């Protein structure tokens, strides 16, 4: 029986490339939130309209119910507690009228969401946790295409509920369809030995985050870009991150900013009380207060 446990994320070995990608995504999400704050309603509507690709190698993304589900998950992003019944309602929008979810699948989904909640409570990085949860949901019913659409919807919902709600304007589905060969290959690699609880999440995790980065870049390019000082860039990245960040991660996300400047700004933020310093030496990280 499949066992859901994401505690391994706390000690997941990250390559320098993946670490840099995570830092860049945090910076992007913070900047995108600022851009959207100043975007017009018309500009936002134009972005939302592009979320669903017209032609897709994943048929469920073209279902009429997928667009409705995208709207309904916004209603759940601020709910105090997310349970399986909430998400089952979203899943049913992707099913044919005469189809139903069996009791075993409902119980398994409950275990999956419970493991996700536990990982969040233990401080798992949402950008690492969410692709892993999506992979597990896809692998639960590999013969049912609806599981893939449900997994992407759940990933979106978890992003929103992690304080990354700017991603609702990001066209992740479009990027998955455009680079489907790359995405599907990574999915196949991570799905190997999934039922035996010995799969490797990293290929899918890296593909998911890479496509999220590309999708976010497209949205940023479509919106007016505010001019920020180096100090503002650092502040925006640190204050916008839901998890602690190190000086090395900030430097990776902002390669044009010197380490001296990063240290000076972080010191000023700690002194002002806007961020707290965690750890010592090379293990030092910074988190919004």
Task: Give the arrangement of secondary structure elements.
Blueprint: H1 16-37, H2 41-49, H3 64-76, H4 84-92, H5 103-121, H6 126-140, H7 146-161, H8 172-178, H9 180-191, H10 202-222, H11 230-240, H12 247-253, H13 259-272, E1 275-278, E2 285-288
Antiparallel strand pairs: 1-2
Helix pairs in contact: 1-10, 1-11, 1-12, 3-7, 5-6, 6-7, 6-10, 8-10, 9-10, 11-13
Task: Tag the structure with descriptive keywords.
289 residues, mainly alpha, two-stranded antiparallel sheet, globular
Biggest sheet overview: 2 strands, antiparallel
Our estimate of the beta-strand percent is under 5%
What percent of the residues sit in helical stretches (DSSP H or I)? Answer: 55-70%
Rough shape? globular
Describe this structure in words.
By secondary structure, the protein is mainly α. The chain has helices spanning 16-37, 41-49, 64-76, 84-92, 103-121, 126-140, 146-161, 172-178, 180-191, 202-222, 230-240, 247-253, 259-272; strands spanning 275-278, 285-288. Strands 1-2 form a two-stranded antiparallel sheet. Helix 1 crosses helix 11. The longest helix has 22 residues, at 16-37.
Please sum up the structure shown.
With 289 residues, the chain is mostly helical. The chain has 13 helices and two strands, in the order H-H-H-H-H-H-H-H-H-H-H-H-H-E-E. It has helices spanning 16-37, 41-49, 64-76, 84-92, 103-121, 126-140, 146-161, 172-178, 180-191, 202-222, 230-240, 247-253, 259-272; strands at 275-278, 285-288.
């Amino acid at each position: 029986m499949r066992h859901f446990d994401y505690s391994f994320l706390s000690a997941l070995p990250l390559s320098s490339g993946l670490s840099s990608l995570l830092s860049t995504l945090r910076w992007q999400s913070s900047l995108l939130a600022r851009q959207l704050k100043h975007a017009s309603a018309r500009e936002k509507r134009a972005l939302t309209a592009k979320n669903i690709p017209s032609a897709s190698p994943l048929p469920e993304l073209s279902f009429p119910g997928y667009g409705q589900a995208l709207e309904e998950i916004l209603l759940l992003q601020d709910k105090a507690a997310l349970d399986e019944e909430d998400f089952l309602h979203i899943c049913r929008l992707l099913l044919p009228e005469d189809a139903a979810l069996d009791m075993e699948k409902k119980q398994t989904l409950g275990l999956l969401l419970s493991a996700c909640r536990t990982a969040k409570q233990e401080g798992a990085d949402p950008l690492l946790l969410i692709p892993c949860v999506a992979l597990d949901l896809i692998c639960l019913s590999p013969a049912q295409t609806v599981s893939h659409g449900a997994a992407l919807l759940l990933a979106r919902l978890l992003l929103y509920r992690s304080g990354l709600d700017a991603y609702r304007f990001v066209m992740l589905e479009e990027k998955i369809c455009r680079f489907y060969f790359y995405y599907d290959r990574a999915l196949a690699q991570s799905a190997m030995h999934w039922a035996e609880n010995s799969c490797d999440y990293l290929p899918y995790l890296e593909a998911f985050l890479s496509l999220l980065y590309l999708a976010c870049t497209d949205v940023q390019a479509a919106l007016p870009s505010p001019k920020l000082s180096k100090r503002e860039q650092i502040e925006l990245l640190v204050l916008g991150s839901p998890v602690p960040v190190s000086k090395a991660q900030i430097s990776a996300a902002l390669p044009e900013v010197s380490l001296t400047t990063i240290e000076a700004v972080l010191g000023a933020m700690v002194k002002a009380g806007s961020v707290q310093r965690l750890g010592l030496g090379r293990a030092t990280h910074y988190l919004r207060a």
